[in-house]
Amino acid sequence: MTYWDNYYSNKIIGDNALVGEPSSFARFTLGFLRCHLPQQRDLNVVDLGCGNGRDAAHFDDCGMKVTAVDRSRDALRLIPREGIAKLCCDMSDLADVEQAFHLAYMRFSLHAVEKKVADCVLQWVARNLLPGGCLAMEARSVNDPRYGAGQSAGEHAFVDSHYRRFIDLDQLTAQLATQLDLEILHAEENWSDAHHGDDKAVVVRVIARNR
Ligand SMILES: C[S@@+](CC[C@H](N)C(=O)[O-])C[C@H]1O[C@@H](n2cnc3c(N)ncnc32)[C@H](O)[C@@H]1O
Predict the structure, then answer these.
(1) Per residue in 107-163, pLDDT tens?
(2) Is the pLDDT of residue 1 over 80?
């Protein structure tokens, strides 16, 4: 059983109590996108590494057509909604799937995967975003207080209770703009909005658009 299966079957104390409540990043994303994607009903959204689906459920409540992707079957079991399409797979296995969408959303999942998986999924997103469609990501920054905890596992990566690859905002925005030709609409390092209990997470938040 993986760390995330244990987490989502409540064997590890986590944020499953918050399943009925969207994250602050989901709220931020929808507010931010109001001027770029004003008609939010019926937008096709893919939530990559959706976990217990608390943000996927919020997008569903807003009338969007949501596909929730996660490798953990136990995570997807926590999304009891008919309206949300669930795909249990490794996000790097999406490479052969053709699916046009308006919003690709990744909260706390970019830092959960190795660089080669991230590169593969970001290329897939760039290929499948509709013109004007957006990619929204929140992930732990290299300035997060947990950076350096545990065993080193590659550049900016450590295995503590589980794998985390902390994100350098400048490297990420350069990759999105230069390699994937996305337009950066918003890029920030955020020191307060993602805090949860004693986890004082420092995160990068990026929203990029297919031109
Ligand atoms: C920190 S949790 C974030 C969950 C959710 N997005 C949230 O904000 O609450 C990371 C999630 O990424 C999923 N994940 C990790 N590696 C993955 C991969 N290679 N493919 C698909 N999902 C993956 C885990 O199962 C877990 O649900």
Answers:
(1) 999 999 999 999 999 999 999 999 999 999 999 999 999 999 999 999 999 999 999
(2) no
Domain boundaries, the chain: 3-141+168-210
- What is the value of pTM for the model shown? 0.97
Ligand 1 site residues (CB inside 6 A) read 4, 23, 49-51, 54, 70-72, 75, 90-91, 107-109, 112-113, 117
- Atom nearest to 93 CA in ligand 1: 20
Tens digit of each residue's pLDDT (9 = 90 or more) over 39-96: 888 999 999 999 999 999 999 999 999 999 999 999 999 998 999 999 999 999 998 8
**How many angstroms separate the CA atoms of 105 and 142, rounded?**
20
What's domain 3-141+168-210's superfamily in CATH? Answer: Vaccinia Virus protein VP39 (3.40.50.150)
C-beta of residue 145 within 8 angstroms of C-beta of residue 166: no
